[in-house]
Write a structure and sequence with these properties.
This protein is an alpha/beta fold and 502 residues long. The strands form four sheets. The chain has an eight-stranded parallel barrel with strand order 11-12-15-16-17-18-19-20, surrounded by seven helices. The chain binds ligand TNX. The site of ligand TNX has 11 residues, from loops. Ligand TNX binds next to loops.
């Protein structure tokens, strides 16, 4: 008999002999109250059965100190025990339990099993670009829930880009007053009030995610120039930008007007003007106070409109400003070319699984500096890529479309030669939103490929577990279809996956 399907694959899973456990209305959940409430809600969504939370019960949840985020789950015919090493571990054990529940005739059961599980990487992220298309708070919360179900623990919010500024700041009110009003294609804009942002941070924390806010600089800043013309250089055009405008429309970027196209690399902050650094200090100072998590993302990608020496000067100063605020800067890998970055700066690699154009050198520079990397190889975990030529949503620049198999079939330690497992802080799957308008678009691009990224981030390395193969993954992820449907996740029913119909 094949093992029960769990995604991301656990460190260890064994079938038990006495089972299954039947989930019915008389069953009670006992132990840690937050966890019990979360489990009752998950099981009710999945089965329609309402379980009671009580002082004693057949489903026992508790915390017993151990490795961070780890848990143990045992199921036999008499009961279920989930023991988390901390609140996050217990929460992850519950997510696993939710995946194990299945319909058996007129009943709901959980197969007899023993699972011990812990994450491979400490940082397991998703990024949502709320600049190209603004996404309301409810959508962000829904994405947090979806990501948490796959044991993701970081939400990176791409809060600014050429097309708009999405976070209200008391020190710089013009940003949202003047530069948040639209999205790509003239779609509605928007921004998070300070209270909205706090609400997102609190909601994420309740699902054991930190929020990593990104203000992308010194490129991707056309919208900053709409609010503060004195900080922005005029747009720098190139043949590639002209080509993108010809293919996708949106017009030529014009100073003082919100940009509604999807070309990149034409904007830059003024590097030699001290007012730029006053702006940076205001923005990151306020974000540091609003953000309990340890990281502030400073961008640094595709600054094609900035002279390379100026780019280095800028990234050095900005990472220093963030470090002085007591936060750890994260920058896209291009910043690795700046020799004097704050040494704690974490690099986020977005090149291909087989690096091109020296992108791996730029990534290695962060490690040589004494810091670590987050891996987001674009031809594997960029969730905004099309699945195949026929996918209506998405882009295809990252080595062409990205099938589910391509999203799955890579190994984090094989990407950047010469770095060790301990040099990798984690894995993050970005979702850029040039073509993404709402939650149903997010679902269709992120599911099932986010499950593949989550497995790269959480599960044992390829070659060390029989579960860490495409053959195993496609079966296991296919078994999640009924759960995803009951949670309202509008996944893409890719023909690569044998979807289970309940
Ligand atoms: C590249 S890769 C970008 C984004 C785009 C994305 C679209 C990187 C750090 N930047 O500006 O939105 O491609 O796929």
């Amino acid at each position: 008999m094949s093992l029960p399907a769990v995604v991301p694959a656990p460190s260890s899973i064994e079938s038990g002999s006495s089972g299954p456990f039947a989930v019915s209305a008389g069953i009670r959940i006992t132990g840690d109250v937050d966890a019990a409430t979360a489990l009752a809600a998950l099981l009710e969504a999945r089965t329609g059965v309402t379980l009671q939370v009580a002082d004693e019960g057949e489903v026992a949840l508790r915390i017993e100190a151990g490795e961070p985020e780890s848990y143990r789950l045992t199921v036999d015919d008499a009961g279920v025990a989930v023991v988390g090493a901390d609140a996050a571990g217990l929460f992850y054990g519950i997510q696993t339990l939710g995946q194990l529940v299945r319909r058996a005739g007129g009943e709901w059961t959980v197969p007899a099993v023993t699972i011990t599980d812990r994450p491979r990487f400490a940082y397991r992220g998703v990024m949502l670009d709320v600049a190209r298309h603004f996404q309301p708070v409810e959508t962000v919360k829904a994405y947090i829930d979806r990501a948490a179900g796959l044991k993701i623990n970081a939400l990176h919010l791409h809060l600014s880009d050429d097309q708009g500024w999405r976070i209200q700041l008391a020190s710089r009110p013009e940003l949202t007053e003047l530069a948040s009003g639209s999205s790509i294609g003239g779609d509605p804009g928007g921004y998070y009030t300070t209270d909205d942002y706090r609400e997102i941070v609190a909601y994420a924390a309740s699902r054991h995610l930190i929020v990593v806010p990104e203000i992308d600089m010194p490129g991707h800043t056309h919208a900053v120039g709409v609010a503060y013309p004195e900080l922005a250089e005029p747009p720098v055009m190139s043949d590639e930008i002209e080509r993108v405008i010809a293919e996708f429309g949106g017009g030529v970027p014009t100073p003082g007007e919100l940009y509604q196209g999807l070309a990149v690399g034409f904007s830059s902050l003024k590097i030699d003007d001290e007012r730029t650094y006053e702006f940076v200090a205001d923005v990151f100072g306020e974000l540091a106070r609003l953000t309990p998590g340890p990281y502030l993302h400073v961008g640094g990608d595709e600054s094609l409109g900035t002279d390379p020496d100026d780019f280095a000067v800028f990234m050095e100063r900005v990472t220093g400003i963030v470090a002085d605020l007591g936060k750890t800067p994260i920058a896209w890998h291009e910043a690795g070319s700046a020799p004097g970055l704050d040494p704690g700066t974490i690099g986020q690699y977005w090149g291909y699984t087989t690096p091109l154009d020296g992108m791996d050198d730029q990534a290695r520079a962060f490690v040589a500096n004494g810091s670590r990397l987050i891996l987001s190889p674009a031809d594997a975990v960029y969730l905004d890529m099309k699945y195949d030529e026929s996918t209506a949503l998405g882009l295809a620049w990252a080595n062409g479309p990205t099938s589910v198999e391509a999203a799955y079939s890579w190994e984090p330690s094989d990407i950047i030669a010469g770095i060790d497992e301990s040099d990798i802080l984690g894995v993050e799957a970005p979702l850029w939103t040039e073509t993404v308008r709402d939650l149903s678009d997010i679902d269709a691009l992120a599911f099932p490929r986010l499950a593949a990224a989550a497995e790269a981030a959480w599960s044992p390395a390829t070659g060390t577990s029989e579960l860490r193969t495409w053959t195993s993954f496609r079966e296991r992820v296919g078994a999640l279809a009924p759960l995803w449907t009951s949670l309202g996740i509008g996944f893409h029913a890719s023909t690569e996956i044998p979807w289970v119909v309940e």
